[in-house]
Amino acid sequence: MAEQDSSILIGYLTEVRGDGMEARIAEEHATELPVIKVGNEEILAGHVGSYVVIRQSDIGVLALVYKMWELDRFDQQGNRASDRFISLIPVGEIVGENTFVRGVRHYPTPGGKVYAVGLHEINTIFSKFRDYEFFIGQLATHKDYHLSLDPRALFGRHFAILGQSGSGKSWTVTSLIQHTIKAMPKSHLIMLDLHGEYCWKNDEGTVESAFPEERVNYVDAMDLEMPYWMMTYAELVDLFIDRDDSGASIQMAFMREVLQQLKRKEAKKIGLGAVSIDTPIYFSLAEMYVQFKNANEERKDFGKTKGALFGQFDEFLVRMQSRFNDVRYDFLLKPKKRNTSASMIDLLREFIGLGDKKANITVVDLSSVPTDVRPAVSAQVGRLAYEFNYWNPKRREFPITLICEEAHAYIPRERGGQFEGTKKMMERIAKEGRKYGVSIGVVSQRPTELSETMLSQCSSFICLRTTNPDDQQYIRGLVPEAEGDLTDILTSLGRGEALVLGEAAPLPTRVQIYRPNPEPKSNDVDYYNGWREGPDELDVEGIVNNWRTQTRA
Fold it and tell me: Measuring CA to CA, which residue among 60, 42, 33 is closest to residue 114?
């Protein structure tokens, strides 16, 4: 960024700190309408959200304006005048031939000159990122400028999309994926869709999607059959054992022993040498139940002496039987297609988009899955993606990103909860997945309820409107200290407008996300029209039938 490009002096530094700077606006620009022309563009001098460059000797620091105020002063005659000030967040340095580098190593001193930055300078700063052609939206301060992110940093180092309900999260997720597929036609994504927003069936039963038909693979989790035998020991414990039960430790120990025995039996049958408790091979759930039941009722000496485990598994057997008898769990506990070890291959092909229909994104619809088992299924989806690439010799050429919608529901912050095994599995992917070509994009409206480990591993954040003070404070703690004050603007963001922070963007940027086309099925319910022109009668019988059969229209 050459000196002549930023020739309009708008102020002088008055204070320099490690996390920010203050500057006084030059008197000629501290007017009621401080319009200046930078290149072919007219802007307001020092307005909030704009960029400036501070120059002093060989130092060039790029900063973002995030606050503006005035202070009155009076002369000896009592005449009042006002001085205008701006607060700046330094985001990087201009070094060499117009090269932008994140972070500030050489700070100016008070008295340094503050220059306006226009579209030409911004283009220079973002030029390296524009080469990726991964555009996600327009700058809030320069509508003619389209922001491109670094996909290597975004997808390779985990990212989070955070914002309250109604802020445009589904819109942002859809737009981001649409442009991902456009920019990288060999991308591989798996989405956990908890509410059927991204793929859904219309009244005729035809699947509609927010993504190109030829690029998306829709999978109803109930039809997919995520069989129990592919679950890890920890996930089976989550499903069948109540950790608060006084006999939980005995139940877990006996389950480990039974699983080892059943899997060794299957391994011998299919010619597999050695197995572990987590080896994904078939075993009979009915056999496991029988062994628990026999141990629970064991008597010796013609019934005079109770066995060592007599009565220890009452809670377990009731819980397991209730799960088994509940038709909602048939897709998990009574697989019809995936009931042999060999069936795992077809499942994985469909799962990662290499089945009969090649696809960039696989949308796993969990909306019809019982709420209390969604975390276990979600963890299984994540684990299968992780394990697949862990054993894939071409993992570097076939990276996978897992998009976790409503992540706080199954990757909670609390410790020792009902789905501790699920949480640990997802956190393992967050900590180790990058090495094996598996990354995570978490989407949540309550970052304070989301696993700290998960968020700490994210290097990029797309933050939408957030008004909850606790969530704002939490987001502030996630980003670098120098950028923390930027979170103050989260309450003023419009729908679909985001603050992009982290390594994927050249600098903290306020951006209007492109409107997705087509849009997800996540629009708010229109109470006004519904209560004015809504139906006079409903098919209550059909609703009751849907309820009873757990079928969502």
Answer: 60
